Amino acid sequence: MISKKMEPLVQNSSVIRAMFEEGAKMKAKYGEDNVFDFSLGNPNVPAPIEVKEAIIDIIENEDPVRVHGYMNNAGFEGTRSAVADHLNRLHGTKFSAKNIIMVVGAGSALNVSLKTMVNPGDEVLTFAPYFVEYGNYVVNYDGKLVVVPPNEEDFMPDVEKMKELITSKTKAVIINNPHNPTGVIYGEDIIKSIATALEEKQHELKSVIYLIVDEPYRELVYVDKPVPYVTKYYDNTIVAYSYSKSLSLPGERIGYIVIPDESDESDEFIAAATIANRVSGCVNAPSLMQLVIERCVDAEADVEFYRKNGEILYSGLTEAGFECLKPEGAFYLWMKSPIADDKEFVAKAKEYNILMVPGSSFAGPGYVRLAYCVSRETCQNSIEKFKELAKEYDL
Ligand code: PLP
């Protein structure tokens, strides 16, 4: 008999699985090229060549006992130093290996961070729409996710509402920048206002409120808008990073957490997070991938490929009459559903072999998300279908 905690998860995941299975069935029936599947955030750009070269070189030339063995639960010292140096070069920070914990992707970075800080009953805030796993991750530690309603004007976080929802039980606020599912970037003004609001609340409540910055899309930026490095604006920042999207390595499960010296009781937090990594059962991040990252820390994503895909979809869909948010980063396009019921709109789009995710799956009803980490042809060839779909709604 499965646990009470798992029951709603099983229920929910069967809905998502049904969507994927239907997509696979449609591709078998109509042919891969005739189904426009924008449902999954699985990068279709191959990992940079440096990654392949590093894997081969490590396997052929390094000591296999070291390559495949256990190490400190926080990760190889050399990898953590390489990551710290990389961040310092880019952001003018002063991290050293001790501030970095290698983990099993951003999902694990978030879980390890939450396990380290959340007591049962603690609240963790985030801004709708949001990556839906946040709710599951917080419940893993018997915390409660509190959702700040969406700001439909520009989908920037509503900092005033956040302040109203912060209580003495608030342990953390999670932000995601660049953003899944809306594709927006929170600029310096937003980060500064979140930081100021949290400082005020910490002072007023005499508590520690962490700002967890989930940034697996950090490098995927298409506009001239810097993505602020949040540790420079707020001391109690914890950064959750992953190479899943930037280096197209989602199946390899590799990422890191940054715990700055300035954060509350940072040495204790680092020690606890290292243990949280171990007792979560991950033990340590994959050893081969850590060694790959040590060599490929400056490798770059093919940002131009995604930018062009986003541009094709944005111009095609707006021309067809749909209302879209102009993509700034990540690889998602956020489109207003022409009818209030986004699930019904997604079902109608399926009749045109277009697969999208309803915004209500991200607590953003009335919208849909298109993941454009797909082939150029899928983007280009979908436009005619979207134009036909638009006619259903007299757009
Ligand atoms: N956070 C956000 C906003 C995401 O979109 C994703 C994956 O899509 C993750 C975290 C999880 O990333 P990872 O595969 O590195 O665990």
Please provide a brief summary of the model:
With about 400 residues, this protein is of the alpha/beta class. It has helices at about 5-30, 50-60, 65-70, 75-90, 105-115, 135-140, 160-165, 190-205, 265-280, 285-295, 305-320, 340-350, 375-390, and strands at about 35, 100-105, 125, 145-150, 170-175, 210-215, 235-240, 255-260, 330-335, 355, 355-360, 365-370.
Your description of this structure?
With 395 residues, this protein is of the alpha/beta class. The chain has 13 helices and 12 strands. It has helices spanning 6-30, 49-61, 64-68, 77-91, 105-117, 133-140, 159-165, 188-205, 266-279, 287-296, 303-320, 342-350, 376-391; strands at residues 36-37, 100-103, 123-127, 144-148, 170-176, 210-214, 237-242, 255-258, 332-336, 354-355, 357-358, 367-371. The strands form 3 sheets. It has a 7-stranded mixed beta sheet with strand order 2-8-7-6-5-3-4, sandwiched between helices. A 3-stranded antiparallel beta sheet has the order 9-12-11, covered by helices on one side. A two-stranded parallel sheet has the order 1-10. Helix 8 (188-205) links the parallel strand 5 (170-176) and strand 6 (210-214). Helix 2 (49-61) packs across helix 10, helix 5 packs parallel to helix 6 and helix 5 packs across helix 9. The radius of gyration is 21 Å and the shape is globular. The chain starts with 5 loop residues before the first helix and ends with a helix. The mean pLDDT is 96. Pyridoxal-5'-phosphate is lined by residues 41, 105-107, 131, 176, 180, 214, 216, 242, 244, 250, 255.
